[in-house]
From TrEMBL, chain A:
The chain crosses the membrane at residues 22-42, 93-109, 121-140, 146-165, 177-193, 213-236, 248-269, 275-293, 305-331, 367-386, 393-411. Residues 727-744 have a biased composition (Basic residues). Residues 719-744 are annotated as: Disordered. It is an enzyme of class 2 (transferase). Residues 24-424 form the Oligosaccharyl transferase STT3 N-terminal domain. Belongs to the STT3 family. One of its GO terms (molecular function) is transferase activity. It is found in: Endomembrane system. It is a multi-pass membrane protein. It comes from the Eukaryota. Its cofactor is Mg(2+); Mn(2+). This is dolichyl-diphosphooligosaccharide--protein glycotransferase.
UniProtKB/TrEMBL annotation, chain B:
It comes from the Eukaryota. Keywords: Endoplasmic reticulum, Membrane, Signal, Transmembrane, Transmembrane helix. This is Oligosaccharyl transferase subunit. The keyword Cytoplasm does not apply. Belongs to the OST3/OST6 family. Residues 1-19 form the signal peptide. It is found in: Endoplasmic reticulum membrane. It holds the Pfam family OST3_OST6. It is a multi-pass membrane protein. It comes from Aspergillus cavernicola. The chain crosses the membrane at residues 177-197, 209-228, 262-280, 292-312. Subunit of the oligosaccharyl transferase (OST) complex that catalyzes the initial transfer of a defined glycan (Glc(3)Man(9)GlcNAc(2) in eukaryotes) from the lipid carrier dolichol-pyrophosphate to an asparagine residue within an Asn-X-Ser/Thr consensus motif in nascent polypeptide chains, the first step in protein N-glycosylation. N-glycosylation occurs cotranslationally and the complex associates with the Sec61 complex at the channel-forming translocon complex that mediates protein translocation across the endoplasmic reticulum (ER). All subunits are required for a maximal enzyme activity.
Length: 744, 326
């Protein structure tokens, strides 16, 4: 690499040079891993070691259960404290990889007599794995390029790019925390297998694929990408025994491994998501057969007949798959995956998927925000892959096109795009640096492509390479690249610190004098629940808060973020969006003791329930279209209002009443303002007759109401009639008869 | 089938002659008007159809089909409604259960529209029977308001909810034989064409530059937010309120169609400068022109990146970084 005669180079040449470079490389990788871990610790330093957001709270709770009860109990776990009164077969409906990983780490540390709290393991698991991801990235990129710096650059990009940090800061204890490492590492093993045609690498890829299946639902991406890679290779006429060996090994072992997870079970042979892998498995057998027979067939006619029969057989098999899907033997595409292709599907048919903010399409600023200058190096890197189009470069190209489509459709899938962007950007940037950092001019030996200017090669790579001659050019380009790299580091740090390090359980804002003001209403309210309510009190809230209530307050909930039962969620939506007379029977039938709402009107916290309210209405309307109507919540001019001109349906809904109950008492007469919606509120507080206010947190973000018991008859004359109605209904349920899910 | 038709019409004839009260044979009289499709109504027949007493359900859609009313929804939904009527009339229902489908166009039923004080179309009304086994106490019609494009399945589900329980004919979409045949023909044509032309097509298909261009265009499209435009149906450009055009939408998660094209062009320029620096420049043999090329590519890169950053800063207030020129 270096040809100058400075004394440092004595160390970098010959056999001592190799080991020196190896050592240097290890030091750089360790530094990168350290940077990856430390840039994810903002939230721990600013706030505390706390689990973030929503889903991580469930994972944390499940991990604690695993630690306390052992693996087999965890496997058979039936959770009766969620989805009251249905319960959830948790052991069979989750991806256990994450919990098992932290459980294993916990036990290893215990074995080494290092007492670490399980919470700290969970909080720091994602940063630790991001260090490993950087290393896996180094391995993967090294397979793509002969340049020694490409792998290190890719590792450095992966370590700090916000697209990955967004899902792996300390405390974000979610499946993605370990899944991205597994994704990158599985791809590395797969490339290794294809390159070497070795059963060992194929089996290792299958093993890590199995681990990936146990960790994240996004494994379907691998399940479809690897067959696609093989298919494209076959179409390009690049079939070889290497491809055959690696694919069949991976498919057979990987499918068996994935079927060990109860949640996946027989899906790999019963579901359309996995059919491409099976189809390619069949196709590659045919192609292998043809390849084998071709050697023994002399005549050209025979060969043509063979090709025709292969195409015919695969066509027939394809038709067979379609028929099987039509007849229902193979389940159709799952909703989440299908909505990626038919982008309007979820909004019409599965509002619960469409309602999640991370399932929205991605606007261009998000791409730039998450990837900075990598986003424009990315196409250049893909172009470089066309230069010497080896099997592994085909993989990069397919991955790039597919993942950029997915990332464009769903914000959340930016995560799967990030690794390949880092690979491609590192390919092009390392090429530039290698070219411009060489001190002496002269052609660089870079494989075959620069030597064969055939028509096959890329247009820009036809003439031979001569290198850069002037020092000025080198200095200009190198310094510009360094500026861009420094800007990238600054950008990543700024984005991580500003956008991705908030636990969202604890909020922070600035006081007028610049000091930090911590808003800790969530935990205040959840601990109130934990300490002031019986252990079996059922809490109803919108599903977003289900996991947090289960994790922090340890109380049974009606619905949570698992969202497996749309009807149950719609029931809660109906209770929230109906009049009290309608809601009260629903609350009684579901044994609800407390109702929790999130209200941001005092503080200007925009993620509150009134802003989510339309989704509750929509989801409820999906089940009871004639009882809950979205249109009733809009004024005749099509506005969504909460002030004097709010529609009667809005004003009488339980959600509205709970949110604004007594809110005007905080303000002088007629001055009550909602700081989120920016409107004046009616001067009179809504009257609640079936609920009692039990608790309101410091900044009014969380309000908890207790459901009144039936015995308080005759206290409110205006509602007496309505209560008689509810009373009669209730008497039947009070006698512990069979529980009825809903009244209609 | 024919025999069945003959039989039923005979049955109608007999029942019409035998019937004594006016209402029961009103149903058969209307049903014989149109055996499968919805009945085309006008003011008088609408009044007659919906008058009491009636022993049948009647689902009437009030619509404005003529193009001068500009009711796109009416025209879109009409085939769907025909489909519902067809499926119902073809299917088997319990003997005493009667449901009629009718269409009242604004041209034929201005009086009815005025009486109902309808401002919008289409509107679907379902009239319950007033006599007979399914009679309801509240005989006012149920109304379905259309709030957007909707499929026959959803409307049929809504109608079914208001009908008494019991087996109902499923909604059957007719198989589009034409499409299947044309699809197969086109497929075979393509295969034939490909086989015949393969000596000419194969070099194009195998052309690496073509595939490279295709992949890059796809990646640039997707990473500049094209799918967002497609899903959210954003406007191409918008006015800035002072008579000019604003090319960039305000706000982080908001964009215009043209904006994404500008961004894609910027990404493309940046990518090609990077490719130029990496692959083109080292291949220039002449030293002078190589240096000029480096400077040109470098300046283009810096300028475009700086502009991109300034655009991003405008979209994302509080973003602190920038590069010199812009």
């Amino acid at each position: 690499m270096a040809e100058s005669t400075s004394p440092v180079d004595a160390l970098l040449k010959g056999s001592s040079g190799r080991s020196a470079r190896g050592l240097l490389r290890i030091i750089i990788l360790v530094t990168i891993a350290a940077a990856a871990v430390s840039s994810r610790l903002f939230s721990v330093i600013r706030f505390e070691s706390i689990i973030h957001e929503f889903d991580p709270w469930f994972n944390f709770r499940a991990t604690k259960y695993l630690i306390q009860n052992g693996f087999y109990d965890f496997w058979d776990w039936f959770d009766d404290r969620t989805w009251h009164p249905l319960g959830r077969v948790t052991g069979g409906t989750l991806y256990p990889g994450l919990m098992v990983t932290s459980g294993v780490i916990y036990h290893i540390l215990r074995f080494l007599t290092i007492p670490v709290d399980i919470r700290n393991i969970c909080v720091l698991l994602a940063p630790a794995f991001s260090g490993l991801t950087a290393f896996a990235m180094y391995l993967l990129t090294n397979e793509m390029s002969s340049s020694p710096s490409a792998g290190l650059l890719a590792a450095a990009f992966m370590a700090i790019t916000p697209g990955y940090i967004s899902r792996s800061v300390a405390g974000s204890y979610d499946n993605e925390a370990i899944a991205i490492f597994l994704l990158v590492f599985t791809f590395f093993l797969w490339i290794k297998a294809v390159k070497n045609g070795s059963i060992m690498w194929g089996a290792l890829a299958a093993l890590f694929y199995g681990y990936m299946v146990s960790a994240w639902g996004g494994y379907v991406f691998i399940t479809n990408l690897i067959p696609l890679h093989v298919f494209v290779l076959i179409c390009m006429g690049r079939y070889s025994s290497r491809v055959y060996i690696s694919y069949t090994t991976w498919y057979a072992l990987g499918t068996l491994a994935s079927m060990q997870i109860p949640f996946v079970g027989f899906l790999p042979i019963r579901n359309s998501d996995h059919m491409s892998a099976l189809g390619i498995f069949g196709l590659i057998q045919l192609v292998a057969f043809a390849d084998f027979v071709r050697g023994f067939l002399p005549g050209k006619q025979f060969q043509r007949l063979l090709t025709a029969s292969i195409i015919l057989t695969s066509g027939l098999a394809f038709v067979g798959l379609i028929v099987l899907t039509m007849s229902g033997v193979i389940a159709p595409w799952s909703g989440r995956f299908y909505s990626l292709w038919d982008t309007g599907y979820a909004k019409i048919h599965i509002p619960i998927i469409a309602s999640v903010s991370e399932h929205q399409p991605t606007a261009w600023p998000s791409f730039f925000f998450d990837l900075n200058f990598l986003i424009w190096l990315f196409p250049a890197g893909v172009y470089m892959c066309f230069r010497d189009l080896k099997d592994e470069h085909v993989f990069v190209i397919i991955y790039s096109v597919l993942a950029s489509y997915f990332a464009g459709v769903m914000v959340r899938l930016m995560l799967t795009l990030t690794p390949i962007v880092c690979v491609a950007a590192a390919l092009v940037l390392s090429y530039i640096l290698d070219t411009y950092l060489k001190t002496s001019p002269g052609p660089i030996n870079r494989g075959r492509s620069s030597e064969d200017p055939s028509s096959e090669a890329l247009r820009s790579a036809r003439t031979p390479e001569v290198g850069i001659s002037s020092y000025f050019s080198k200095a200009v380009t190198t310094s510009a690249t360094i500026v861009y790299l420094l800007l990238f580091v600054a950008h990543c740090t700024w984005v991580t610190s500003n956008a991705y390090s908030s636990p969202s359980v604890v909020l922070a804002s600035r006081m007028p004098d610049g000091s930090q003001f911590i808003i800790d209403d969530y935990r205040e309210a959840y601990y109130w629940l934990r300490q002031n309510t019986p252990a079996n009190a059922k809490i109803m809230s919108w599903w977003d808060y289900g996991y947090q209530i289960g994790g922090m307050a340890d109380r049974p909930t009606l619905v949570d973020n698992n969202t497996w039962n749309n009807t149950h969620i719609a029931t809660v939506g109906k209770a929230m969006s109906s009049r009290e007379e309608v809601s009260y029977p629903i609350l009684r039938q579901h044994d609800v003791d407390y109702v929790l709402v999130v209200f941001g009107g005092l503080l200007g916290y925009s993620g509150d329930d009134i802003n989510k309210f339309l989704w509750m209405v929509r989801i409820a309307e999906g089940i009871w279209p004639d009882q809950v109507k979205e249109r009733d919540f809009f004024t005749s001019r099509g506005e969504y209002r909460v002030d004097d001109q709010a529609t009667p349906a809005m004003r009488n809904s339980l959600m509205y009443k709970m949110s604004y109950h007594n809110f005007n008492k905080l303000f002088p007469m007629g001055q009550a303002t909602d700081r989120v919606r920016g409107t004046k509120l009616p001067s009179e507080s809504p009257q609640l007759s079936t609920l009692d206010e039990a608790f309101t947190s410091e900044n009014w973000i969380i309000r908890i109401y207790k459901v009144k018991d039936l015995d308080n008859l005759g206290r409110d004359h205006s509602n007496a009639v309505a209560f008689d109605h509810g009373n009669k209904r209730k008497k039947t349920t009070k006698k512990k008869g069979p529980r009825v899910l809903r009244s209609e | 089938m024919k025999l069945f038709t003959l039989f039923t019409s005979l049955f109608y004839l007999i029942s019409i002659t035998l019937a004594t009260s006016s209402s029961p044979n009103k149903f058969e009289q209307y049903q014989s008007l149109s055996r499968l499709a919805p009945i085309q109504l006008d003011d008088s027949s609408y009044d007659d159809l919906t008058s009491k007493p009636r022993d049948y359900y009647a689902a009437v859609i009030l619509t404005a089909m003529e193009s001068r009313f500009g009711c796109v929804l009416c025209r879109e939904f009409q085939p769907e409604f025909d489909l519902i009527a067809r499926s119902w009339n073809k299917g088997s229902t319990p003997d005493d259960f009667k449901l009629l489908f009718g269409t009242l166009d604004f041209n034929n039923g201005k009086a009815a529209f005025q009486r109902l004080m309808l401002q919008t179309a289409p509107v679907l009304l379902v009239f319950p029977p007033t006599i007979g086994p399914y009679a309801r106490v509240d005989d006012s019609p149920m109304r379905f308001d259309f709030s957007g494009p909707i499929s026959a399945d959803q409307v049929y589900a809504w109608i079914n909810r208001h009908l008494p329980d019991g087996p109902k004919p499923p909604l059957v979409r007719p198989i589009n034989y034409m499409r299947i045949v044309s699809g197969v023909t086109i497929l075979m044509g393509v295969v034939t064409l490909f086989t015949v032309l393969s000596p000419y097509i194969l070099p194009i298909v195998r052309n690496r530059n073509l595939w490279a261009a295709f992949s890059l265009v796809a990646i640039l499209l997707f990473t500049s937010g094209h799918m967002f435009n497609h899903i959210r149906k954003v406007p191409y450009v918008a006015g800035d309120g002072r008579g000019g055009i604003s090319y960039f939408a305000g706000g982080f998660s908001n964009q215009f169609g043209m904006e994404t094209q500008i961004v894609a062009a910027m990404y493309a320029v940046l990518s090609f400068s990077a490719i130029g620096l990496a692959m083109k420049v080292p291949r220039i043999a002449d030293k002078k022109s190589q240096q000029v090329a480096v400077v040109i590519w470098g300046v283009v890169l810096l300028g475009t990146y700086s502009f991109l950053l300034s655009v991003f800063r405008a979209k994302n207030g509080g973003y602190p970084f920038f590069l010199p020129p812009f």
